[in-house]
Specification:
Its main location: membrane. The chain is mostly helical. Helices cover about 55% and strands about 0% of the residues.
Length: about 325
């Protein structure tokens, strides 16, 4: 823990602050104290559901808390704490939810512009949809990982109701934070999608066929779409939890590599599912993205699948984490 801040600093889990180890024999004590005071002001908030391996900032189960401490700041919280509505009064969480909304909107804008640009190439080469899907998967690696790097220390960098619902089901995100994050993510996604139309000067017809958010009802049965989306959402959560949320992996590859691995797992899911089933242009894995792009495209065919799938995947993944708790040693 200490090595993250250097040999002269330490992280205080009880107060969620970084402070300096001071010694009268060390030179420049005053300058170092000023630096330590600045670090105190920018220390990362304690939050269990933070992507990027930052659970080192979570409080231990025995830590003392204050009324302003979020319900999802302390490890292994009871459901009564997670379901408490008190965090709705926490202004800090509202601000973080705004960051989630802005980040989701920007991601949807970028992915929407990319989709409009590369979709026509599916008919321009002999390999068909393989080329645009491969290109989108490569971009996905950097898009997801860079956004996690940018906002992981701030809001936790969910930018996706699938991640937020998954962390809630695993007791890593409180009910108020989940509601605020998801609502802001959806609002941001809708704004981002309409900005695609405004920026490119296109109509809703240009966004009716969007990879990951398009299902041909004449070729795909509802049960097939539900099964496909649910299984892929669980797989994505399984990878995201293991790579970026489980503190046991901190010693395996560290927090710095986790965002890249999460981006890679998302890209693999996109590439594998994009042309595995005729009429199904890949699984969504992000219901807010589909909500925004389908709203801008004025087409909501099978959109319920993009929500029921994540809820099902989150429930199964939450049950898995209940059977194998991430903070308990010696689980039989």
């Amino acid at each position: 823990m200490d090595k993250q801040h250097g040999p002269a600093t330490a992280y205080d889990m009880e107060s969620n602050n970084v402070h300096l180890r001071r010694s009268n024999t060390e030179p420049g004590v005053k300058q170092a104290q000023v630096h330590a005071d600045i670090v105190d002001l920018i220390a990362t908030d304690a939050f269990l559901g933070r992507l990027g391996g930052a659970q080192r900032f979570a409080l231990s189960a025995s830590s003392t808390t204050t009324p302003s401490t979020p319900a999802d700041a302390r490890r292994d919280p009871p459901w009564s704490t997670i379901l408490s509505l008190s965090d709705f009064r926490n202004k800090r969480i509202w601000k973080l939810a705004l960051i989630e909304g802005i980040g989701t909107g920007v991601q949807v804008f970028l992915s929407g512009v990319l989709g409009v640009a590369i979709l026509p190439t599916a008919t321009e080469t002999s390999i068909g949809a393989v080329f645009p899907v491969a290109l989108a998967a490569i971009v996905q690696i950097f898009l997801v990982s860079l956004f996690i790097y940018a906002a992981g220390p701030v809001s936790g960098a969910h930018f996706n109701p699938l991640i937020t619902l998954g962390t809630f089901a695993a007791r890593l995100t409180s009910l108020p934070r989940m509601v605020l994050y998801v609502s802001h993510q959806c609002a941001g996604a809708v704004v981002g999608a309409y900005l695609v139309r405004a920026a490119l000067g296109i109509g809703p017809s240009s966004l009716k066929i969007v990879p990951g958010c398009y299902i041909d009802a004449s070729l795909v049965a509802p049960a097939e779409a539900f099964a496909f989306e649910s299984v892929m959402c669980f797989i994505q959560l399984f990878l995201a939890f293991g790579l970026g949320l489980d503190p046991r992996n901190e010693t395996a590859f560290g927090p710095a590599l986790a965002p890249i691995l999460i981006g890679l797992s998302s890209a693999i899911s996109l590439f594998i599912t994009a042309f595995a089933r005729p009429g199904y242009l890949g699984t969504s894995l992000n219901p807010a993205r589909c909500l925004g792009l389908m709203a801008a495209g004025e087409r909501f065919t099978y959109h319920w699948v993009h929500w029921v799938g994540p809820i099902m995947g989150s429930t199964v993944n939450g049950l898995l984490y209940w059977l194998v708790p991430p903070y308990t040693k010696g689980v039989d």
